[in-house]
């Protein structure tokens, strides 16, 4: 029986969101098919093997996986019997897994850093590899690759901290001339709408920029589009498939962190989205193309804007490790497409093993 290691938490602004997703994956993994071990990563980056994993209730987030800060462990960063080993620093005890299901979000988790460690150990893991993860997390790089592939994206400008300090007036002028209002200021490397501000006028720019720079050294300023928010789920490696699309209708001014996770009435999730057949097919085809362009594997949720006035489609962003609670958009989209939650987990694990076997077949020495 295969042993699956669930990895959750992380040094990220999305730490708590990860605990929500992990609670759901832990609950739904088929114990007749898998042994399950759980490793929590604390805010400081320390890894803890969870002796007795437990789902508890959080006042803000609902069911979450408890992270006990006991049994601090180290992980092997090299190939060892095709498994990954967790070594208890205090007792010397070792626990191993055949593969990893990383239920983590954000920086140091979803951005290629964790995937690099797992690649060094040659262990299978769910989701995109180093390149796809890093590209998907960096909105600026992803937009440039998508644009060059002919996939429409919302107009944006990139701003670095040094650029902002030295050319503030020029940047503000550029925002006014090329982006306009309203616009959105956001960290380039973050998820779950962390650090995002909707800006309606010049006096609001500085505080929004300062907020975004708390989360990343590179930020984006994007044009605000009067649009419907359409999301689609992708599953697969070399031959990805697309779910039916769903729609997010925020009850807040935009689909903020609070609307996603804190406010129970923050948004309506409409599945399937009310779209004509031609638009559905166009979004699905664009999503599959973008998935390949951005070097994704295993899974992704891809978010689109559908301009209410022109009907034009813009790809907003891609999430290589989307939210995974039972009511999150990614599993819900697949449920409505015909793949229930437990089967989805099985498919993702199979895809991870398939991808790892393909990589192991490659020659590594000359």
How would you describe the overall organization of this protein?
With 366 residues, the chain is an alpha+beta fold. It folds into 3 domains: 2-125, 3-Layer(aba) Sandwich (Rossmann fold); 136-152 and 226-359, D-amino Acid Aminotransferase, Chain A, domain 1, CATH 3.30.470; 156-223, Dna Ligase, domain 1, CATH 3.30.1490. 33% of the residues lie in helices and 28% in strands. The chain contains 11 helices and 19 strands. It has helices at 15-28, 113-120, 130-137, 139-148, 161-166, 168-179, 205-213, 257-262, 277-293, 329-337, 341-360; strands at residues 2-9, 34-41, 47-49, 55-58, 62-65, 72-75, 84-88, 94-97, 99-104, 156-160, 183-187, 197-199, 218-223, 227-236, 241-242, 246-250, 267-270, 298-307, 313-319. It has a 7-stranded mixed β-sheet with strand order 8-7-6-3-2-1-9, with helices on one face. Strands 14, 15, 16, 17, 18 and 19 form a 6-stranded antiparallel β-sheet that branches. It has a 4-stranded antiparallel β-sheet with strand order 10-13-11-12. The longest helix is centred in the last third of the chain and has 20 residues, at 341-360. Residues 259-263 have low confidence and may be disordered.
């Amino acid at each position: 029986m295969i042993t699956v290691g669930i990895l959750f938490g992380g040094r990220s602004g999305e730490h708590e969101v990860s605990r929500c997703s992990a609670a759901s994956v832990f609950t739904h993994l088929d114990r007749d098919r898998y042994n399950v071990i759980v490793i929590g990563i604390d805010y400081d980056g320390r890894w803890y093997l969870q002796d007795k994993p437990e789902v508890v209730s959080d006042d803000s987030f609902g069911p979450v996986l408890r992270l006990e800060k006991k049994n601090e462990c180290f992980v092997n960063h090299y190939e060892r019997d095709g498994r990954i080993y967790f070594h208890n620093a205090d007792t010397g005890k070792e626990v191993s897994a055949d593969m990893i299901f990383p239920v983590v979000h954000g920086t140091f988790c979803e951005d290629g850093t964790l995937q690099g460690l797992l690649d060094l150990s040659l262990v299978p893991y769910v989701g995109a590899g180093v390149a796809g993860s890093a590209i998907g997390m960096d909105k600026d790089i992803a937009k440039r690759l998508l644009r060059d592939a002919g996939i429409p994206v919302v107009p944006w400008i990139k701003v670095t901290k040094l650029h902002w300090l030295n050319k503030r007036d020029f940047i503000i002028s550029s925002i006014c001339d090329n982006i306009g209002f309203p616009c959105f200021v956001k960290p380039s490397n973050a998820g779950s709408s962390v650090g995002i501000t909707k800006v309606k006028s010049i006096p609001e720019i500085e505080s929004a920029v300062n907020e975004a720079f708390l989360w990343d050294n590179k930020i984006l300023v994007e044009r605000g589009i009067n649009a419907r928010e359409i999301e689609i789920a992708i599953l697969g490696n070399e031959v990805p498939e697309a779910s039916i699309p769903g729609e997010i209708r925020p009850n807040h001014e935009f689909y903020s962190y609070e609307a996603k996770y804190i406010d129970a009435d923050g948004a309506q999730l409409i599945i399937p989205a009310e779209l004509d057949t031609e638009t559905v097919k166009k979004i699905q085809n664009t999503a599959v193309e973008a998935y390949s362009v951005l070097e994704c594997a295993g899974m992704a949720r891809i978010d689109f804007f559908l301009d209410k006035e022109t009907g034009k489609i813009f790809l907003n962003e891609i999430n290589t490790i989307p939210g995974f609670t039972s009511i999150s958009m990614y599993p819900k989209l697949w449920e409505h497409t015909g793949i229930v939650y437990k089967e989805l987990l099985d498919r993702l694990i199979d895809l991870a093993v398939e991808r790892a076997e393909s990589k192991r077949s490659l020659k590594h020495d000359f």
